[in-house]
Design brief:
Elements (H helix, E strand, L loop, with lengths): L2 H7 L15 H10 L20 H12 L8 H9 L1 H17 L25 H13 L6 H13 L20 H15 L4 H5 L8 H13 L4 H9 L6 H9 L5 H10 L1
Length: 267
């Protein structure tokens, strides 16, 4: 039986997987003769086209080898995966499942290999969501309402991110961290996550961070503050406007008449 007829019949009773012949032999040679070069690496050399009896093979090649493949993949791995497509698919599926289980094995970095070797590992949730999940486990209640609280605080502190710098103190950013509270927030974030993302660790000023990263720091600072659990529960249960939580666990300063009047607008 020829390699071509073996693949097309997909006769598993022959004792060898048809995948052994998917890329080697007559089919690959026919493809080379029928298609122009399109890339630098061996698997990129020939764009699959339908040439009759190889149509089934070409569809497999197009979807599982050429399209997903990354030019950053080392050449040795390229050729190994070319010759072992079934193994490649199994590895790709395993990596995907593992990534989903650990909430983002590669922290959102997208990498691909032939047939999806590392293509689909799940991205990590945003840092703010990770913190809320941590607090939810601790309180035993849904914490999504704290996103609404964060919006109110951003309005109170910086007019929703439009006034980022306090002219009379070191406070800055959407949530107006002082230089000291910024350090505290980073330490608390590290305690929650077990690590501190490099961009947050190395940034010189909180206002240089993205809105999402500032929000993560806000949640870390707030939720790890002494006495915040009791006040968060009251807010989440609808027993408080959040004013006390803001004043005691975020603002922490003397509330003068002007500040109190402004707080009435947001809480």
């Amino acid at each position: 039986m020829s390699r071509i007829s073996f693949y097309l019949n997909d006769n598993m009773d022959e004792g060898r997987s048809s995948s052994d012949y998917m890329i080697r032999g007559n089919i690959r040679e026919a493809q080379r003769q029928a298609a122009p070069p399109v890339g630098a690496y061996p698997s990129q050399q020939y764009e699959p086209i339908d040439i009759g009896f190889t149509g089934k093979y070409n569809n497999w090649f197009r979807e599982n080898v050429q399209r997903p493949i990354s030019e950053n993949t080392p050449r040795g791995m390229w050729e190994f995966m070319e010759e072992n497509p079934t193994l490649n698919q199994a590895i790709g599926t395993g990596v995907k499942n593992l990534g989903q289980k650990v909430g983002g094995l590669f922290k959102g970095r997208s990498m691909s290999g032939s047939g999806g070797l590392i293509q689909a590992a799940s991205a990590s949730p945003p840092l703010a969501d990770q913190i809320l999940a941590h607090v939810q486990d601790r309180l035993g209640m849904d914490t999504q309402k704290l996103n609404k609280f964060a919006v109110a605080v951003s309005g109170m502190e910086s007019d929703y991110g439009t006034n980022l710098f306090n002219p009379v103190s070191s406070a800055k950013g959407i949530y107006q961290f002082t230089d000291d509270s910024f350090v505290t927030a980073k330490n608390r974030l590290k305690n929650i996550l077990g690590y501190l993302p490099e961009n947050i660790k190395n940034v010189k000023s909180v206002d240089l961070l993205s809105a999402e990263d500032q929000k993560a720091l806000f949640f870390a600072h707030l939720t790890e503050d002494k006495g915040s659990d009791k006040r968060m529960r009251k807010y989440l249960q609808g027993e408080s406007s959040g004013r006390e939580l803001f004043e005691k666990n975020h603002y922490k300063g003397a509330v003068d008449a002007k500040t109190a009047e402004r707080m009435n607008r947001f809480f």
